[in-house]
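FW: tagging you since you asked about this chain on Friday. Here's the raw sequence from the shared folder, copied in full. Didn't touch anything.
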Amino acid sequence: MAQEEIIFPNNIRNIRLANGMKMTELARQAGLSLSAVSKIEKGVRRLNQKQLLNICNILGCKLSDIFIKESDDVANQWQDEIKRRMTDNENNGLKIFGSGLRKIRQQAGKTIARAAKDAGMTLSVYHKIEVGQREIYTNEIEPLAKSFALGAEELFEKIANLYKSGELNKHMNKVKERVKSVLEPGSPLSGIDMGGGLYGAKLYDSARKKLIPVFGTPSGKALTLKKSDKTMIVAPISLEGRNGIYAVVPNAKRLGGIIPEKSYVFADALVTPKVGDMAICMDVDFDTLDADTNVVAHIVTVKQDAKGKIYGQAMFPEEKINAKTMHKIIMIVME
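HL: got it, structure written out here
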């Protein structure tokens, strides 16, 4: 029997159970069907960035908590299950049939959407057949073959000949490599040069590139800043994948309306601001902070005194802020 192959090993089920939450409740709060949540927890359906953030908020966990680490007790179980499903699907001939069908479709110049429609199937079902994750039923063979102007026996014969010629090997191996790459962070397929590390490193890195951590929130006249990725937001397109970027929620009243309420201020920890720039400043060494330490930070305008010393000028009321660290504010975005 064909089994959907695991592409997203994750800790979501364990975190949900630890919170005493039923799957139905997670589905309701996440705005997903029960079937979708079940597939996500089983690892056969991936989440996009917004869904990942939503799940994290509902479960009260960090993004990094969701992804399986090599040191996790369940890592070997996931790996064994992935390999078993791949082997089962190869041994029962579904990989060969699916790869052959894909080759015939390509030779006919059809898109997968067009081929699915011609065969009277949904796009999802047709795709699963092509990647060897779904059986073909007797009543489906004839319309499938007919969509390529073939009879049922002709379709089987053509796929057999393609297999014998070796033309299907490349695609079959590619499908296998893509599935296995979730266990191999250093794989060329991941596009990330990482040795060792996480089973889900490729997936985490891909998601993380499109997200930005919110380090600071209003606290009195200042900000409380913690260098943690527990709260994250989707990155503006121009900031995707940039290192050193973080966001703070400004204290709009302290700033006298210069920055609108319900907005995010983005700073670049790798860029030193110049006189006249706006910046996030703090009287600590930012690089030495850990994820559990709270520090006081301010949004300031960078100034220079008569002796050439750089300082931060807070506003409403005006206040001179001396700081060891200043990061240039590069963008302000309303929610």
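FW: The first strand starts at residue 211 and ends at 219.
HL: agreed, and The radius of gyration is 26 Å.
FW: great, closing this out.
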